[in-house]
Design a protein that fits this description.
Blueprint: E1 8-12, H1 19-31, E2 37-39, H2 60-70, E3 74-77, H3 81-89, E4 94-97, H4 99-102, H5 105-115, E5 122-125, H6 132-144, E6 150-154, H7 171-180, E7 186-188, H8 190-194, H9 200-209, E8 214-218, H10 236-245, E9 248-249, E10 255-256
Parallel strand pairs: 1-2, 1-8, 2-3, 3-4, 4-5, 5-6, 6-7, 7-8
Antiparallel strand pairs: 9-10
Helix pairs in contact: 1-2, 1-10, 3-5, 5-6
The chain binds phosphoenolpyruvate (PEP) and manganese (II) ion.
Manganese (II) ion is lined by residues 14, 218, 228-229.
C-alpha cells in the first residue's frame, strides 16, 4: 500500500445496480488514473426496510468484469460470514466493514472467524457512534484473525437533529485513532460524511489537511438516478475535477496536487 505521501484512493458506486452502470462508472474512474481500488456495494444495509438492499450475488460477476477491463482491484462491503465466503469465491481483492457492522461485536467476530486463514486487506469504517474503543475492538478482532493489512475509514457519526453533514465528522477521534494505530492507513469517506455533493470537496480537503492517507469516494455514471445515496455521488468527470483540485501535504509540509 502507498505511503502517507501517495494517497490511496478508493472510488466507485454506492451500489452495483446494473452491469452497464458498474462498467461505465468503473471504466470512467479508471480513465482518470486517480483510482487505486474500485468499490461497489453488493449487500446494502438500509436504515428502513423497503429501500434498495443491493442485488447480492447477481452483481459479483459485473465486478469481476470491471476488474478484468480496468485491471484495478475491487473492494466490497461485507457484513456476514456468508458475504466473506462469496467475496473470496468471486476473487474480490479488498473488503470493508461498514459502520453499521463495526458497531456490533458479534457481527465483527463472525466476519473475523470467516476471515481466519485468508490474506485479504480489510478496511474498517468507524462505528455509527463515536466510541473509539468499539472501533479499536473491531480492529483487534480482525487482527486476531490473522489479517495482515488492516486500514481504517472515518465516515462520520450519527447525530440527532440537523447538522451540515449526513454523518458528522469527529476529527479529533480520527486523529487519536491514527495516533493509536500508526501502522494503519486512515482514509476518509467524505461522501458519507457530506451526504451531498456541494460540500464533498471541502470535507475531502479537510481530511487531507489533517493528514489522512487517502479517500473513499462514491461515484456513479448518472448520480441523480442512483438507487442509493443519489445526493452524494458524483460522475467520474466531477471526480477527476475534484481530485485535480485537492491539495496534498508533501513531506516538507508544502501542499501540492498529485
Ligand atoms: C457504503 O460505503 O456504501 C456504506 C453503506 O457506508 P457506511 O457503512 O459508511 O454507511
Ligand atoms: Mn453509500
Amino acid at each position: 500500500m502507498p505511503t502517507n505521501h501517495s494517497p490511496l484512493i478508493i472510488a466507485g458506486p454506492c451500489s452495483a445496480e446494473t452491469e452497464e452502470q458498474v462498467l461505465q462508472t468503473c471504466i470512467g474512474l479508471a480513465k482518470t488514473k486517480k483510482v487505486n481500488i474500485l468499490r461497489a456495494g453488493i449487500w446494502k444495509p438500509r436504515t428502513k426496510p423497503g429501500g434498495f438492499e443491493g442485488l447480492g450475488l447477481k452483481a459479483l460477476p459485473w465486478l469481476q468484469a470491471a476488474k478484468k477491463i480496468t485491471k484495478l482491484p475491487i473492494a466490497i462491503e461485507v457484513a456476514t460470514a456468508k458475504h466473506v465466503e462469496e467475496a473470496m469465491r468471486h476473487n474480490i481483492d479488498v473488503l470493508w466493514i461498514g459502520a453499521r457492522t463495526t458497531v456490533n461485536p458479534f457481527s465483527v467476530q463472525a466476519i473475523a472467524d470467516a476471515l481466519r486463514g485468508v490474506a485479504i486487506p480489510v478496511f474498517i469504517k468507524n462505528p455509527t457512534n463515536p466510541d473509539i474503543e468499539l472501533w479499536i475492538g473491531a480492529v483487534e478482532r480482525i487482527a486476531q484473525a490473522g489479517i495482515p493489512q488492516i486500514g481504517l475509514i472515518h465516515r462520520g457519526f450519527s447525530v440527532y437533529g440537523n447538522t451540515a453533514y449526513r454523518n458528522a465528522p469527529v476529527w479529533p477521534l480520527a486523529i487519536e485513532m491514527k495516533r493509536r494505530l500508526p501502522s494503519m492507513l486512515m482514509l476518509c469517506d467524505p461522501s458519507h460524511i457530506a451526504g451531498r455533493r456541494n460540500i464533498l470537496q471541502a470535507v475531502a480537503q479537510q481530511a487531507i489537511d489533517l493528514n489522512m492517507d487517502g479517500l473513499m469516494i462514491e461515484a456513479h455514471i448518472n448520480p441523480d438516478s442512483a438507487l442509493s445515496d443519489a445526493q452524494q455521488q458524483i460522475t467520474p468527470e466531477t471526480f477527476l475535477q475534484m481530485l485535480n483540485q485537492l491539495q496534498w501535504l508533501t513531506t516538507l509540509g508544502k501542499k501540492e496536487n498529485f
